[in-house]
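Milestone M4 deliverable, item 7.
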Amino acid sequence: MTGLDRFKSAADAQEHDMTNWPILAQSHDALRTAVAAVADWGAPTPCADWTAAQVFQHAAGDQIGFAAFLTGCPGPSYDPFAPSGVLDGEPRDLLEPALRLAAEAWAGVATSSEQVHVPVPPNDMPAGLGVGACALDAAVHAWDLARSAGAPSPVPTTLARDLLPVAQQIVEPLRAFGAYAPALPASSGDEVAALMRYLGRDPNWTA
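Output delivered:
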């Protein structure tokens, strides 16, 4: 096991101990795995016109954004929808604070909460749907980064299955803003492929 692998394993375990939201911990695990696989941060991604570095900045910024909506802490220092593509430091050192903020914010939310404030329309929703939105964001961009790197999908099929109904509840209004492309026709494949097609991504995309 490399030093990076040990670091990722420790971070994964720490978050699983902290959270009462397994769907979020699993999505964060996927994002850590994908980031560790990237060698070329200038490589293209399934997100049109964005490099791996830009997708990474967007994904990290979104996690900070969820934490800010939940707790009132400062949001990201940059616009996650206009990422520079210039990484100011080691990716893992930029990623972990963002994931920690989100995990800690959600750890303070009861699973029974009927309304939480999140940066996704309609902005106020039940806790289970809100944390699902946060998890979906991390998982889909984990997949983007893995595809960019030519690595296997880090998103487990069980996680994709749990995220699809979340996507079906929140994604349609976001398509109008360009956050997601139109859904692709259903085809053969596993739960991950089905989720990505719904999100407008070609499961067979290659760099």
